[in-house]
């Protein structure tokens, strides 16, 4: 049974992204769009963005970027980050972004799965990226330094990104074809999918345009106030990239860019700039709801808010809602990288107090399947949610196995999320997740990635990783490792601290074993050798629950 979205489906243009954004603007093209929240004298308008993008396209081509090449940005947020995104796609190339906190090991994997050919990096982040570049064969001539901050300097032997602006202007690669728009990649956003190591989701021009049109077209996006945004979420991430990199310039909404998230600075900026909309991951929402800073800064300018990336309690929603403008909705959304961001939501000004994630956006189809893969044909029955539609990516780059496991014969992507649709309201609810991903502060952590690192330790012969409740509710979950010592290795020779430090030295901070390390004689497995993580999770739940009388 297919659960279709209701309501009219907006038209989805078949254009390339740059033509779609710049050819027919419907707002004052000289108003500031991207504004540096730290230094508001730094801003970019529609007119300026168009010129800079054309200059960057010429510079990228001069540097050797060819159609289909992947250009990877390794940087914190900046007003020029979305401009670079559009220049890369306009040059006929493909964008990829990486986490500034990545280690050389993670960057090497990231560069490999995206098939990166050119790198744009902040100078302070260059060293680990160079290690990855050396191991993946990216020459230094294909690296530019993204020095946007006054204190930043250019390392010897490298060129600044501004050098790309010195080669005149060149128009972007244009097309107006359904087939071309559907098959031309715009970005490789990384995702762990339903299991395994991070993979590069092939996000097309049409995927991103559809994501916008199905959410922000005039027939759907009916705001009665001036929208002012603030972007503290990392711009490499699919949770914000479509909204920031494409929709902001298309809509002409003034948006303040924070280099990175800091709770007090964020709340102060909301008050200072009279921000009207919140785009949060659940960890941010929990942090805000629990913060005494709400007594210091006002959120009364907020007219609408949404939170996603992980389930959020309706109590947390209610705790935040009371600080917003009177009547302002604060709802949950459900989305993922593979659907180009948002999949279900509540249209403004509808609100929700039940903990639902809303209804599917127009133009997409949902179905539910049971553990055997059979369709569920009734409301109020939970199953794995599957989705098909114009925002769903075509697959993972160079990963036929993951594609076969994730997409069925009818073109539905199997999300790994257990959900149900309420018969009386047609609202959707997340029950659990089938996939084993660990959600840490909104980031996905794939257990196999940590397990692979653990098994490189000479004194570890087997390991399993699961997610357990984090010590702080703000973090959601934390990875925990179950480890088997090599025979003959004593507890003193391999301690839990040794294991923790081994992972901390090779993976970024949110992948550290903050859920603890436990040693076992054997890791529970089935007859085929698959780790029985259900047993480990059940044991962990009993620890949390404690003894009962």
TrEMBL record:
GO molecular function: CoA-ligase activity
InterPro entries, alphabetized: AMP-bd_C (IPR025110), AMP-bd_C_sf (IPR045851), AMP-binding_CS (IPR020845), AMP-dep_synth/lig_dom (IPR000873), ANL_N_sf (IPR042099)
Residue ranges of every copy of the AMP-binding enzyme C-terminal domain listed in the record: 449-530
Residue ranges of every copy of the AMP-dependent synthetase/ligase domain listed in the record: 30-397
Protein name: AMP-binding enzyme
Extent of the signal sequence: none
PROSITE patterns linked: AMP_BINDING
GO biological process: secondary metabolic process
């Amino acid at each position: 049974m297919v659960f279709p979205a209701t309501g009219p489906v907006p038209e989805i243009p078949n254009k390339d992204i740059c033509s779609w954004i710049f050819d027919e603007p419907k707002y004052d093209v000289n108003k500031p769009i991207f504004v540096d929240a730290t230094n508001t004298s730094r801003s970019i308008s529609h007119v300026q963005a168009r010129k800079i993008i054309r200059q960057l396209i010429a510079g990228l081509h001069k540097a050797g970027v060819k159609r289909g090449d992947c250009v990877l940005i390794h940087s914190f947020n900046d007003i020029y980050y979305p401009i670079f995104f559009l220049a890369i796609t306009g040059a006929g190339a493909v964008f990829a972004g990486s986490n500034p906190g990545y280690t050389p090991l993670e960057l090497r994997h990231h560069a490999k799965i995206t098939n990166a050919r050119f790198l744009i990096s902040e100078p302070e982040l260059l060293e680990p990226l160079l290690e990855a570049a050396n191991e993946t064969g990216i020459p230094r001539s294909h690296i530019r330094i993204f020095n946007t901050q006054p204190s930043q300097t250019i390392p010897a032997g490298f060129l600044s990104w501004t050098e790309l602006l010195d080669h005149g202007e060149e128009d972007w690669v244009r097309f107006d074809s359904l087939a071309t728009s559907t098959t031309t990649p715009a970005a490789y956003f990384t995702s762990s999918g339903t299991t395994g190591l991070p993979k590069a989701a092939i996000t097309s021009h049409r995927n991103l345009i559809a994501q916008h049109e199905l959410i922000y077209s005039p027939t759907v996006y009916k705001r009665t106030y001036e929208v002012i945004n603030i972007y503290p979420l990392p711009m490499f991430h699919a949770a914000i990239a479509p909204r920031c990199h494409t929709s902001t310039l298309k809509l002409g909404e003034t948006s303040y860019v924070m280099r990175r998230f800091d709770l007090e600075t964020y709340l102060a900026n909301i008050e200072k700039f009279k921000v009207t909309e919140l785009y949060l991951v659940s960890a941010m929402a929990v942090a805000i709801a629990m913060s005494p800073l709400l007594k210091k800064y006002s959120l009364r300018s907020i007219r609408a808010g949404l939170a996603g990336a992980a389930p959020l309690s309706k109590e947390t929603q209610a705790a935040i809602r009371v600080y917003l403008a009177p009547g302002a909705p604060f709802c949950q959304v459900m989305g993922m990288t593979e659907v180009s961001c948002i999949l279900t939501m509540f249209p403004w000004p509808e609100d929700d107090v039940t903990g639902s994630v809303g209804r599917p956006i127009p133009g997409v189809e949902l179905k539910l399947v049971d553990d055997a893969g059979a369709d569920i044909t009734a409301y109020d029955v939970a199953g794995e949610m599957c989705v098909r539609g114009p925002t769903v990516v075509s697959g993972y780059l160079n990963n036929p196995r993951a594609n076969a496991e994730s997409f069925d014969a009818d073109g539905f992507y199997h999300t790994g999320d257990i959900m149900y649709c309420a018969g009386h309201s047609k609202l959707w609810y997340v029950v659990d997740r089938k996939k084993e991903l660990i959600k840490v502060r909104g980031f996905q952590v794939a257990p196999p990635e940590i397990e692979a690192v653990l098994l490189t330790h000479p004194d570890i012969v087997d390991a399993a990783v699961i997610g357990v409740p984090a010590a702080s509710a703000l973090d959601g979950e934390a990875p925990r490792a179950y480890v088997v010592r090599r025979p003959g290795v004593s507890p003193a020779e391999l301690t839990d601290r040794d294991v923790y430090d081994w992972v901390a030295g090779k993976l970024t901070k949110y992948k550290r074993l903050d859920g603890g390390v436990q040693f076992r004689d054997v890791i529970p497995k089935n007859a085929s050798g698959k780790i029985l993580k259900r047993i480990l999770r059940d044991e962990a739940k009993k620890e949390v629950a404690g003894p009962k009388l």
